[in-house]
Structure formats: structure tokens, C-alpha cells
Write a structure and sequence with these properties.
The chain is an alpha+beta fold. The chain has helices at about 5-15, 45-55, 125-130; strands at about 25, 60, 65-70, 80-85, 85-95, 105, 135-140, 145-150, 160-170, 175-180.
Length: about 180
């Protein structure tokens, strides 16, 4: 049995114990895996990142390698890229006001701030569920609601290693999308 299945079963068991702030449900069979943004796929090389955005000054972020951050010059949002082994491992879309201070200011296109399945900042939770299906995990902390989906390469041919899609909402609006496919 894969680690992802064991983790999902553990999450369902914890939810059954009614631990505050933690809930999980068996997933529906809809394909929930996001392969990146419409402009930048997970797994692309640093050369591919450079071709799309140029290469911002790298900094030590949340990944195994350097991170790069791009903030839209019109304030539409920001894109944070974490890398491992010279490949994009994590993509984070967030509101421009929450951009890291070391973000390069660029002109982001519509597809840069939209996922491969068409989700974007500002979307309501109902739209995310309609497109991705029932989340594997649901957390509520104050006014922040977080949905998460997980898969391993055993469960989906679209996953390179271990996939996590995390969508955070505040006041009914999507404020952060975190897509990760790495080991």
C-alpha cells in the first residue's frame, strides 16, 4: 500500500475522532491533479522558467533548491517558484500584497495566475470543489478555510512523485494556491 493511501486513511481516522480543525473525507474519483499554471508546468527546468519569466534573484525559500518570486506590476498577484535539482517542484499563486519582498516585478499574463484546470485567485470554494471534486482534507482556522488533495505516482499517471494541491480561502475567496509535485 502506498504512503499516500496510508496518510489519507490516517486523516480519515483523525477526522472521525472529531479533532477540532481537522476533517477528511474519502475522495471522489475525479481527476484533481493540477499540472501547474497555464503558463508554467510543474517539473519544467530552470531554463524553461528563464524562458517564460527571466530568472529573478534566487533566495532560500521553502523548496530544496533556490526559490524565485515574481509579482505582477499591475497588482494582480504573485507567483512563487520553488525548485529542486534545477526543476520546478512547487508553484504558489498568492495575492500581490502577500508577495515576498525579494519578488521581481514583471508583467504577468492571464495564464500565469490561472491553474491548468482554470482556477484563479478570488474564486469561491464551490468553484474549486466543482472542478476538483471533494477535497481529501478540510481545515478551518478563524476566517481561513483550506482544502487539500494528495496523490502519489501510484495513484495518478500525471504525478511525478508525490502531489499536493492546497487551496486557501479567506472570507470566501481563494487567496493562495500551492501546487507541489516532488519527493
Amino acid at each position: 500500500m502506498s504512503l499516500a493511501i496510508l496518510c489519507r486513511r490516517a486523516a480519515v481516522c483523525l477526522a472521525a475522532l472529531a479533532i477540532p480543525g481537522c476533517a477528511a473525507a474519502p475522495p471522489d474519483r475525479r481527476d484533481f491533479v493540477e499540472t501547474g499554471t497555464r503558463s508554467l508546468p510543474l517539473g519544467v527546468s530552470l531554463d524553461g522558467l528563464r524562458e517564460v519569466y527571466g530568472l529573478a534573484e534566487g533566495y532560500e525559500g521553502g523548496g530544496h533548491g533556490p526559490s524565485f518570486a515574481y509579482k505582477d506590476e499591475r497588482g494582480k498577484g504573485c507567483l512563487i517558484v520553488d525548485t529542486q535539482d534545477r526543476r520546478v517542484e512547487t508553484l504558489i499563486l498568492r495575492e500581490a500584497r502577500r508577495a515576498p519582498p525579494q519578488s521581481a516585478t514583471v508583467s504577468l499574463r492571464e495564464g500565469d495566475l490561472r491553474t491548468s484546470r482554470g482556477l484563479s485567485l478570488g474564486d469561491p470554494p464551490e468553484k474549486v470543489e466543482r472542478i476538483l471534486g471533494r477535497p481529501h482534507e478540510v481545515r478551518r482556522e478563524g476566517n481561513r478555510l483550506t482544502y487539500a488533495w494528495h496523490a502519489s505516482s501510484d495513484e495518478s499517471p500525471r504525478v511525478g512523485c508525490c502531489y499536493d494541491g492546497v487551496y486557501a480561502f479567506e472570507d470566501g475567496r481563494l487567496v493562495e494556491i500551492r501546487l507541489h509535485d516532488g519527493c
